[in-house]
């Protein structure tokens, strides 16, 4: 009897620590956050009132929130496109290296171990001290000032910095995916006269689909929840051109004392990410070698 | 069966380790604390400028020699205002912290009982009354020890002024004349940090639009508009005119970079807060520089932005021994000789009675503040949500080269959109 119980519960018991930690640090926080989004709490006051959906209604009518969602969308699209294409190219190149492959891979991984804030501070100096002299020497008007100073280019500049760091991990994941392709398939392809592109399209790509899914989900999530690069490089400026939703939430909560409103913004962000991830996983589930 | 039992035991052990890990650490810490009488308190200090941090470090080191049973750990973080708010929101209030007692946010904290009332403490009487009065809470009590005043002013390079025979401008016309002269000689007249446009906006608005802040408060209350306001229009035109004499890369430059550039003699003037002085001195100890108020059309209408700097407060939620330790520190730091040392090291003008400001070139701005027209920082009367959003509106005006009329319209819209009802 006891034996049977132990046998049944053992594997469940193994999951209990993770469930407790997850519930404590994630589920509870989410529930409390949703609860606050229906109040008028300012973050400091010891009491608050329930105001129903009025925070959500106010957000709907707030042009800053719409702009911020748009900026976040643009940011995420640029980040995903940049990270996915660059990391795939890097992975293919690194995987085809005959010598010093491990050493080269570790060099490409270095940006991933530096903190985002440090990287941003370094790039900020590059943008403000290195780019303008180059712009003046080449007489390119757009580069006379730091790209972060111009609302047209600031978002692009922030994304470049983010991509510079963010390609490392997906590259490694792609390399792992590439190494799972059996070499005899390539051999067979070659014998059958398949071109390089066709070998990639019909042999490599199907094996890469699971890793593409993982990388894509990670990139979309990191694009939509991005905060650190834009905050350190521009603080959301100039003229809110890099005011991603993460910065808006942070400022509304801790600067503008609209804590409940910030929670409503977070809830909307949560829903957006959940929907996007769901669609993305559904779309990429079909096909590929698992 | 045996394997299953072993696995079960391992799983349960894992769980118990996780559940008890935190408790063990606490127990160990409590044990150590009871063995000795040393009280450790965190001092959340908001001013990140290197010179100010160094001054506090020195004062804390001196204090520890006199009070070996109190250990003060100063904690200075980037973006401290928001970090402190988040700590209040999560009920993790540092026992000792600096804050801005004239601002509406501070008054909200007082109203909710988070901050210790210091009205009856003897050291409160050591503070210059003019500044102490500015810090009174809504109930008339004092909840912080105001330690220094601050101001926004034009810092000027004395050598460049002397070499080019430029006198200190006392009117806006003279100021522009001086800018033109420097420009004609290939010297950058004014180094502006428009990436951090906030304090430039505040300083210029208070200088060029007397009564402007009060007008904006009316807009927030739904009682008026600045669109069409002649005084505001003048302010908008002057603000834009200043950018004609500024460094070309102004929109990419931060306040810290401006201080460095000025310290290295790259510009004749900057519009800076008093907090910048220490950093300029650190970057170039030999630079001779003075300060004057940003002038308006006439001497009589010139108004300087000046207020109470970060003041020291004690958390009402702290443990009794922490409060006691924090109070001991405040009593120590309020001594005139300690305040004088702090002022000399930080470059900040102390408001503790019996101290003097050891900089003959900057004394004139302090005299002006004492005797002339001054206005406090905007966040003392306008909600900070509005003030910070106006920074963005101002950036838009300057970067997009909007008309002054459009700028005023945008100011109205920004205020209305961000006013907390």
From TrEMBL, chain A:
It comes from the Bacteria. SUPFAM superfamilies: MetI-like (SSF161098). GO terms for biological process: transmembrane transport. It is found in: Cell membrane. GO terms for cellular component: plasma membrane. Its main location: membrane. It is a multi-pass membrane protein. Residues 69-280 form the ABC transmembrane type-1 domain. InterPro entries: ABC_transporter_permease, MetI-like, MetI-like_sf. The chain crosses the membrane at residues 12-38, 75-94, 106-123, 153-178, 199-220, 259-279. Keywords: Cell membrane, Membrane, Transmembrane, Transmembrane helix, Transport. Belongs to the binding-protein-dependent transport system permease family. This is Sugar ABC transporter permease. It comes from Paenibacillus agri.
From TrEMBL, chain B:
InterPro entries: Bact_solute-bd_prot1, SBP. It holds the Pfam family SBP_bac_8. Residues 1-21 form the signal peptide. The keyword DNA repair does not apply. It comes from the Bacteria. The keyword Cell membrane applies. Keywords: Cell membrane, Lipoprotein, Membrane, Palmitate, Signal. PANTHER family: ARABINOSE-BINDING PROTEIN-RELATED (PTHR43649), POLYGALACTURONAN_RHAMNOGALACTURONAN-BINDING PROTEIN YTCQ (PTHR43649:SF33). This is Extracellular solute-binding protein. It comes from Paenibacillus agri.
